[in-house]
Specification:
The complex is a heterodimer of chains A (1054) and B (188). Chain A has 1054 residues and is mainly alpha-helical. Helices cover 64% and strands 5% of the residues of chain A. In chain A, the strands form 2 sheets. In chain A, strands 1-2-3-4-6-5 form a 6-stranded antiparallel β-sheet, with helices on one face. A 3-stranded antiparallel β-sheet of chain A has the order 7-8-9. The radius of gyration of chain A is 39 Å and the shape is extended. Chain B has 188 residues and is mainly α. Chain B has 9 helices and 2 strands; from the N terminus they run ααβαααβαααα. In chain B, helix 2 crosses helix 3. The interface between A and B is large, with 87 and 91 residues.
């Protein structure tokens, strides 16, 4: 802090400084010399000040970090007595987000942990969101999670504003110690530590099942109670503070949510995707690492404990460094455990365990000596990389030997026990075998051989404790992927001849054990083949695998259709798809059909030929409708669907398609209410129909039912098992609902989910862009729009949306161009024209602006924007007469538009049309009866019209509402004078003098003005003295004297 | 969409009419608006987390363009109100940061034109900055006002001159002197 402040001295220095600064350079020197002789210190000070002016030097940087040190002593908050219905007993701790108190609840009588946030809720939407999410938290019941009994809002006065401080009353964990503390105190061995970790993972997973992400997992939030059981505390609490962004970091100026040491990479950086389930998996990974090794994964980077690192260093490590290998640490950590932790701690969320349960499962496998799902880091990747690098030079013997060594590591990931596969076999026989095979048969055979080796090993494993079906599926997929990639890399043709039978057999085997995993495997394979463009191979697998159609989802069929349509040899595949279609589960059929048709044919001539033939069966009619929807005749499509339902009311495909048809805004028969009806009918029959829930949500969104739309989109998500376009669509709907209710951070997250599933989802992407715009992140939003336009040139809505964002970003010229582009592409609407007009307004082109508004009005005579904007334009360019009808129309459409009504009234005042102006002011004073301004203006208008008798009641009302306003009082006196009510005028003026006195005393910057006005009023009154009775005149004199006294005082003071 | 609906303009209107309640309501509304803008700034400037009060306030004024149409005269009163609110935000912000124990290196408030290499090492906080400003005010209130308007509200010399009803050159000079004085004071 600066040294003590001597005002007299400082004033002197400042005066010298000012004086010398005003002097020319030469004189300044002399001045300083002179000063030096009298006051050398003063001279030095002044010289420094002058140097600072000359150097244009300015203020030093202001670091809030430094402010911490300076201000911390001055802040010590006393213990509050009670918060809500809780009596505070003591402070338990203080964290970044808030303080924790031990408190007693009266009814029911119990001890609670009360967490009171530092930061208030800043907006109505934040409060709403808090309430909504608190409900979710309240519903979270799990023995491993501390209950949230109540989440409330505590109101705190804060200067002029109120703060709504959220608090949580949570289960008090008796004797709770942090996980790490407990493990250290009790000297737990590794196995017991792992068991605690498993318990923790299970609890966290239970939270995830309720769609709640913890976001701040750390040892201090995992307590072990006196019963030795873990309790996860603060579940979802991290999300409850800050405005609408829910990312881990920076939710409000100065707030970091989550504890940096345990935060996942995506909580530090946008680029890694949204914060989600896998962020908690990461934090659990750090927790586990620490618990098992006694160190933080990044401790090896520096000597200082990680907890003391600056945030930036932690972020840097998390985003760029690799955790230290666990094998190098103590406690007999094994390689497998290292793999498990490595998988939990992957930087990319996609590479981590998909859920906390998966992590728990792998810990359990480890304890049971089973194969863990996690493999050694990226062996497959290395394998592939290696093969790629050596594509041309692979004939060399060294290269092959190396590849096998890498392959050997890969085999270990299947965790074949030593006793099963002898060391000799692994180290000598296997490479020898491969080497031989390669020499004699070439690489293709070598791989085939290798594949069957693994199959054999698996059959050996069959008698052992079985690896789970999903683990098997994962392994199988890895195997197939490795093989196919190698094939592709070596340009070995992937036609049906190679191994398709084996692949089909494996899928069947997995499916037999667990259908869900079979489906996942199939899904993965299908995606893989798609990536590798192995069409022929896929056809062969599908035809061999008798069950393929059963688990081929509509998305896969659609994907195949696309391949079939694009590839020269795809006809066979199309046939296959066509054959599969009838086998697709009923509910997926409509969609599969539509997608199939969409991709299938470029000529529709054949359709006319068969249309008549097909009109007898409901099923065919539904199909026809689907085709027609795609082709041309939307009208006939609707007809086909309706006929199909008539023929067979139970045909859900038809009803579903009809619902979709009504739900499509492109169609003339678009009717969201009708669509909702039919979707509901579908759902009453099949309750877990994802696409129907989703369609219902979309229809409700169009009907403006935000809440229902969100709930039903969530229902859709409940039923989504795979990452399909339906899931993407459902997340889009959820995001839309968030966007509508102003929960922008969540909206982004939901759109991120939608896009992570389907990157080409233009609706999600453009909505995301819009939200980014609303958050002020304009450039990111625009980049998203660019991507939408690139990915999907048919999505013309993007131009309008882009325009809106640009408008928001105040980039008017490009915004105008975007709107014009939308208009050019046939999307002209009143709102686009009106917005284009706004751009022109900002660009200073009023004539064109006017045209746009007039066009907007033409397009939508009942749209308020066009009228209002045109009125404002005319008004601001001085064409007031012309503005009047447009203001009037605006007010007809929106009678409560206060500003526009005031504007219109002002125009009438301008033209001295008192009656009209009065009418509007009266309207406004009735609309806002407690706002004195409208009573005042009503009164003043009547006064101007010479209607003093009418003016008085209005001014009296204004006075009543603003009793301390001198100006209102003056207006009232003015009126009273007109009405010759001198006595009352005097009474009011006496009050006014008092008010002026107070204003003067308080240093009101308006005091002079008020005094002046007061004098004028008194003079006016004096001018009418001949009308007054003597006592009244005496009172006037008194008043004048006290006013003069006041003025004298003021003059003296100055 | 030409104009944002601003209750602040209505409050201004009321304040012009002398409604005493309007001023405190206005302060609340201004506070709300500034915080809102600040939040969006923080969002946008994620990379360096720099909060520039003048940028913040100038954006706020942009929103208040309707002010003119309402013939808002008492600008000085209004600017001092905004400056007061800003002060509360900054000081409060500094204090709140101080109650956090975790390093807190993330956010900083940077003031315009930081060219002085010598001064870089010194980092006054909002609390001491306003402390120094109060001291300057006790010596010369005009200079303090000029400083606050240029520094917090980002007004130009001409605007300051208009608001304070002084000559432009006087405003310019007062600003140079005030900045030099504040710089020295904070370095001390």
């Amino acid at each position: 802090m600066p040294e003590a402040f001597d005002a007299t001295r400082e004033r002197q220095i400042l005066a010298w400084f000012e004086a010398s600064h005003a002097l020319p350079k030469e004189d300044r020197k002399r001045f300083l010399q002179d000063l030096d002789s009298r006051d050398p210190d003063g001279r030095a000070r002044v010289e420094q000040l002058l140097a600072r002016c000359d150097a244009e030097a300015t203020l030093p940087e202001l670091h809030i970090r430094e402010a911490v040190g300076a201000a911390s002593q001055s802040v010590s908050s006393p213990l509050p007595e009670r918060i809500g219905s809780y009596v505070i007993t003591r402070r338990v701790g203080k964290g970044g987000m808030g303080e924790v108190f031990e408190a007693e609840q009266e009814d029911p009588k119990r001890l609670v942990a009360l967490k009171v946030m530092n930061e208030g809720l800043q907006s109505e939407s934040a409060i709403q969101r808090f309430r909504y999410e608190s409900q979710l938290l309240g519903q979270l019941h799990h023995p491993g999670i501390a209950r949230v009994y109540e989440a409330g809002v505590h109101v705190e006065r804060w200067g002029l504003a109120e703060r709504q401080i959220p608090f949580f009353a949570m289960e008090y964990v008796t004797g709770g110690r942090s996980l790490t503390q407990y493990a250290a105190d009790e000297q737990l061995d590794a196995r017991r530590r792992i068991r605690l970790l498993i318990e923790t993972c299970r609890a966290v997973a239970a939270g995830h099942e309720q769609l709640i992400i913890h976001r701040d997992l750390k040892p201090g939030n995992v307590l072990v109670g006196s019963d030795g059981k873990i309790k996860v505390i603060d579940f979802g609490v991290a999300r409850q503070v800050g405005p609408d962004t829910a990312r881990g970091i920076e939710t409000a100026p100065g707030f970091v949510i989550g504890t940096p040491m345990y935060m996942s990479p995506e909580q530090f950086s946008d680029e890694l995707g949204a914060v989600g389930v896998r962020s908690d998996v990461y934090s659990l990974g750090v927790l586990a690492y620490e618990l098992l090794s006694g160190q933080h994964p990044f401790q090896h980077l520096k000597d200082r404990p990680v907890g003391e690192w600056p945030l930036g260093d932690v972020a840097h490590a998390v985003l760029t460094a690799r955790p230290a290998k666990l094998t190098s640490l103590e406690r007999g950590a094994s390689a497998e455990l290292g793999w498990v932790l490595d998988k939990a701690l992957r930087r990319s969320p996609d590479e981590r365990y998909g859920s906390a349960s998966d992590l728990a499962d792998d810990f359990e496998r480890f304890l049971a000596n089973e194969a863990v799902m996690a493999g050694p880091p990226s062996s497959l990747y290395r394998l592939r990389k290696f093969a790629r690098r050596n594509r041309l030079a692979v004939v060399g013997g060294t290269a092959i030997a190396l590849m096998l060594a890498v392959g050997g590591v890969w085999i270990l990931s299947a965790k074949i026990e030593n006793d099963l596969l002898s060391r000799t076999f692994r180290e000598q026989q296997l490479p020898e075998l491969f080497d031989n095979v390669f020499r004699t048969h070439g690489i293709e055979t070598a791989w085939r051989q290798r594949g069957s080796e693994i199959l054999d090993m698996e059959s050996l494993l069959a008698g052992r404790p079985q690896p789970s079906a999903s683990a098997l599926a994962q392994q199988s997929l890895s195997l197939i992927e490795a093989k196919l990639t190698i094939y592709a890399d070596y340009d070995i043709p992937l036609d049906g001849s190679i191994e398709s039978d084996e692949v089909a057999r494996r899928i069947n085997a997995v499916y037999a054990r667990q259908p869900g995993s079979g489906q996942a495997l199939w899904d993965g394979l299908s995606g893989l083949l798609f990536t590798l463009k192995a069409w022929g191979f896929m056809g062969a697998v599908v035809s061999l695998d008798s069950q393929a159609p059963e688990w081929a989802s509509s998305d896969q069929l659609a994907r195949w259709s696309k391949i079939g349509a694009e590839q020269p040899g795809g006809v066979a595949l199309m046939r296959l798809v066509q054959d599969c279609l009838p086998l697709v589960p009923d509910r997926q059929m409509g969609k599969a059909w539509r997608l199939f048709v969409q991709n299938y044919s470029s000529s529709w001539d054949w359709l006319n030929d068969i249309e008549n033939e097909m009109s007898r069966s409901a099923n065919h009619l539904a199909w026809l409708g689907a085709v027609r929807t795609m082709v041309d005749g939307e009208e006939s499509a609707g007809r086909h669907f309706r006929s199909a339902i008539e023929l067979d009311p139970t045909l859900l495909v038809a009803r579903f398609s009809l619902a979709h048809y009504y739900g499509n805004p492109e169609f003339a028969e678009h009717d969201p209410a009708e669509a909702a009806l039919h979707f509901t009918a579908c759902l009453s029959r099949v309750g877990d129909w994802t696409d129907a829930w989703n369609g219902l949500a979309t229809a409700e969104a169009r009907l403006g039912r935000t809440e229902e739309a969100e709930n039903h989109a969530r229902r859709a998500l409940e039923n989504v098992r795979f990452r399909t376009s339906s899931a993407s669509g459902a997340w889009t709907n959820v995001g839309w609902a968030h966007m509508q209710s102003g929960r922008l951070g969540e909206a982004i997250e939901s759109f991120d989910m939608a896009l992570s599933i389907q990157a080409s989802n233009s609706v999600a992407r453009s909505n995301r862009a819009t939200v980014l715009g609303k958050l002020g992140r304009h450039d990111e939003g625009l980049a998203e729009f660019d991507r939408v336009e690139r990915d999907n040139p048919d999505y013309v809505k993007v131009h309008n949306k882009r325009g809106q964002l640009l408008l928001l970003a105040k980039r008017y010229a490009p915004a105008l161009a975007a709107f014009d582009r939308a208009i050019e592409l046939g999307k002209e609407s009143a709102s686009i024209q009106s917005n284009a007009g706004v751009c022109l307004h900002k660009l200073g082109r009023p004539q064109e602006e006017e045209q746009r508004y007039r066009r907007a009005i033409e397009l939508d005579p009942d749209g308020v924007d066009g009228h209002r904007n045109l009125a404002l334009l005319l008004h601001s360019t001085g064409r007031m007469r012309e503005a009047i009808p447009f203001y009037e129309r605006t007010l007809e459409l929106e009678p409560t538009d206060v500003q526009r009504r005031a504007n219109l009234a002002n125009i009438h005042l301008e033209f001295e049309e008192w009656a009209q102006a009065e009418e509007h002011f009266v309207f406004l004073s009735e609309l806002h009866p407690v706002d004195p301004i409208w009573h005042l203006r009503t009164g003043l208008t009547r006064q101007s019209a010479g209607n003093s008798a009418g003016a008085l009641p209005a001014l009296d009302a204004a006075r009543g509402l603003a009793p301390k306003s001198v100006w209102v009082r003056f207006s009232q006196v003015h009126s009273l004078l007109h009405a010759r009510e001198h006595e009352r005028a005097l009474t009011e003026l006496r009050d006014a003098v008092e008010m002026v006195r107070v204003a003067v005393a308080e240093g009101d910057p308006n005091a002079d003005k008020k005094c002046g006005r007061m004098k004028t009023m008194l003079e006016k009154l004096r001018a009418t003295e001949w009308e007054m009775d003597p006592p009244v005149r005496a009172r006037l004199s008194d008043l004048e004297q006290s006013m003069e006294a006041l003025l004298r005082e003021r003059a003296d003071e100055k | 969409m030409t104009e944002a609906e601003e209750p602040i303009t209505l409050l201004l209107n009321r304040m012009c009419a002398g409604d005493p309640g309007a001023e405190s309501d206005l302060a609340t509304a201004v506070h709300e608006a500034l915080r809102d803008i600040a939040r969006r700034h923080m969002d946008r400037e994620r990379a360096d987390h720099t909060l520039q009060p003048s940028a913040l306030v100038s954006e706020f004024y942009l929103r208040l363009r309707a002010m003119k149409t309402y013939g808002f005269e008492n600008r000085r009163q209004f600017y001092s109100l905004v400056a007061g609110v800003m002060r509360r935000i900054l000081v409060d912000y500094a204090r709140r940061r101080s109650s956090e124990k975790r390093g807190g290196a993330l956010q900083r408030v940077a003031f315009d034109a930081l060219d002085d290499p010598e001064a870089k090492n010194v980092s006054p906080d909002a609390v001491s900055l306003y402390g120094a400003l109060d001291e300057l005010r006790s010596l010369d209130s005009i200079k303090a006002d000029v400083f606050e308007m240029s520094f917090v509200s980002g007004l130009s010399n001409a605007e300051i001159a208009e608001v304070l009803e002084i000559g432009t050159r006087d405003a310019e000079r007062a600003r140079t002197l005030a900045r030099a004085w504040m710089g020295e004071r904070l370095r001390a």
